[in-house]
Amino acid sequence: MKIIAISGSPRAGGNTETLLKVALDVLCERGIDTELISLAGKSILPCTACMACRSEERCILKDDFDPIYRDMVDSDGFIVGSPVYFGSATPELMALLDRAGYVSRHHGHRFNRKVGGAVAVARRIGQNFTFAQLLMWFMINGMIVPGSSYWNIAFGREKGDVLKDEEGIRTIRTFADNIAWLLKKIHQDRQEGE
Fold first, then answer.
1. What is the pLDDT of residue 192?
2. Which pLDDT score is estimated for 89?
3. Order of strands, sheet of 2-7, starting from the edge strand that comes earlier in the sequence
4. pLDDT range class, residue 191, cuts 50, 70, 90
5. CB–CB of 96/39 below 8 Å?
6. Is the sign of the CA dihedral 57, 61, 62, 65 positive or negative?
């Protein structure tokens, strides 16, 4: 079982990445393989709606999309995280999700029944809008999103500030624990069904 976390922040080592690492640490403690993918320094172009992905399970745009898409498909699920940019997720993360959604849907809905969810970080406000924006993508792609004790949001501006948000950290840890529990139940069910 493997969960990947994708940081949509263009800032390497920032609060979004830190929050995702908190989730991945919990998943590792529960025996789940994990991997962190940062979009910082990567090129993810916006979807051009060319629909070339209808014929092949890939995107024809020349950038860093395809290897990340493959990781998403090969995983049992994934968590995405974004800082809040004027009340929404980063353009890089939304470009990745838009394109992944199109490619997946044209090739058998590859994310259907995978487990995952989103996290959002802001200095002051906007997390709920960003969190909801990302959750809509998970829902339309047929994914299973476990809950937590609150919404998966946290506060922080400077690198590391998010670790001071004790309630936010607890919420993310509970969310990750619920992912691990759910993955194990699904895995057990699949084994019993064979």
1. 84
2. 98
3. 33-38, 2-7, 77-83, 115-122, 153-155
4. confident
5. yes
6. negative
CATH superfamily of 2-193: Flavodoxin domain (3.40.50.360)
d(CA 127, CA 66): 28
Can you give the residue ranges of every domain in the chain? 2-193
Question: In this structure, what DSSP letter does residue 145 have?
Answer: -
Question: Measured between alpha carbons, how far is 64 from 44 in angstroms, rounded to an integer?
Answer: 6
Polymer length in residues for the chain: 194
Q: Which residues contact 23 (CB under 8 A, 6 or more apart)?
A: 5, 79, 119, 172, 173, 175, 176, 179
Question: CB-based contacts of 176: which residues, under 8 Å, 6+ apart?
Answer: 22, 23, 24, 25, 26, 27, 30, 79
The closest of 187, 100, 177 to 146, measured between CA atoms, is 177
Give the closest residue to 138 by CA, choosing from 183, 93, 85: 93
| pLDDT score of 193 more than 80 | no
* Residue 13 CA: distances (Å) to CA of 36, 64, 95, 96: 11, 19, 21, 20
